[in-house]
């Protein structure tokens, strides 16, 4: 579980640190802040192994995540933009990993995809098994039509077990998990923000995880005599089972005949 931070967009206040657990957020003189008393909270943020969740308290209003109003609860990802009573906060996660050198990580076939979270590409998925370019140019794999977006803004390509990101032109930029970067190694769950809010998240098919036993595992010991029983011993009881079934059927037939 990573530690998240509410980061004020104008950097007017220190970050609000959000470690694992439940955090009550209320209203302070200079914007949102952590509060000790539940009655002072306008919302709460819960962080555990499943992720981060924002939940509104009674009477809370004007809370938006990535421009969308929150009715009651919202799933949070590092890189999200949260507006609370008109104050903009960014949710920053761990700093992105650096791109390994060619010797450290050769390109491997990648099953990861880039899914749009906001903007014109919302809901669309792009495979990342080959190099991709993002920008306003007509030859880009993913076109981003917005003022300030360069012809070739970003490049993505498979690198080792992840996906490498690099800013393609001087003056271009992006955010990864709430941090400004020019290059980074992306993995499942990482969020990329370009321009005024064109958001993408890296996703990967579910990986099968071995089930964890809920109790200690003990060796199975055979019952006495099991090893001596012949493989076909269970068939010896079959005639008796058939005879019992025939007798039950006969009794039911008599009851139906005489009972009618």
TrEMBL record:
It comes from the Bacteria. Pfam families: Yop-YscD_cpl. The chain crosses the membrane at residues 240-259. CDD domains: FHA. InterPro entries: FHA_dom (IPR000253), SMAD_FHA_dom_sf (IPR008984), YscD_cytoplasmic_dom (IPR032030). Keywords: Membrane, Transmembrane, Transmembrane helix. Residues 132-181 form the FHA domain. Gene3D superfamilies: 2.60.200.20. This is Signal peptide protein. It comes from Lysobacter defluvii IMMIB APB-9 = DSM 18482. The lineage of its organism: Bacteria, Pseudomonadati, Pseudomonadota, Gammaproteobacteria, Lysobacterales.
């Amino acid at each position: 579980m990573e530690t998240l931070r509410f980061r004020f967009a104008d950097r007017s206040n220190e970050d609000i640190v959000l470690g694992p657990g439940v955090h009550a957020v209320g209203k302070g003189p200079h914007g949102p802040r952590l509060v000790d008393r539940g009655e002072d909270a306008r919302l709460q943020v819960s962080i555990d192994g499943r992720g981060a969740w924002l939940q509104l308290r009674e009477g809370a209003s004007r809370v938006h995540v990535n421009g969308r109003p929150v009715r009651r609860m919202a799933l949070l990802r590092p890189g999200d933009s949260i507006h609370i009573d008109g104050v903009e906060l960014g949710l920053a996660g761990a700093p992105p990993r650096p791109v390994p050198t060619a010797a450290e990580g050769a390109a491997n076939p990648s099953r990861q995809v880039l899914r749009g979270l906001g903007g014109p590409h919302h809901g669309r998925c792009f495979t990342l098994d080959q190099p991709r370019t993002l920008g306003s140019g007509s030859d880009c794999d993913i076109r981003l039509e917005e003022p300030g977006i360069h012809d070739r803004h970003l490049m993505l390509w498979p690198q080792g077990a992840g996906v490498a990101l690099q800013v393609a032109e001087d003056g271009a930029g992006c955010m990864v998990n709430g941090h400004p970067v020019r290059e980074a190694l992306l993995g499942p769950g990482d969020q990329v923000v370009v321009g005024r809010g064109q958001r993408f998240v890296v996703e990967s098919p579910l990986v099968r995880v071995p089930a964890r036993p809920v109790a200690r595992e003990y060796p199975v010991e055979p019952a006495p005599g099991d090893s001596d029983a012949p493989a076909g011993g269970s068939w010896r009881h079959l005639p008796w089972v058939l005879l019992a079934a025939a007798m039950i059927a006969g009794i039911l037939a008599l009851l139906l005949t005489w009972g009618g």
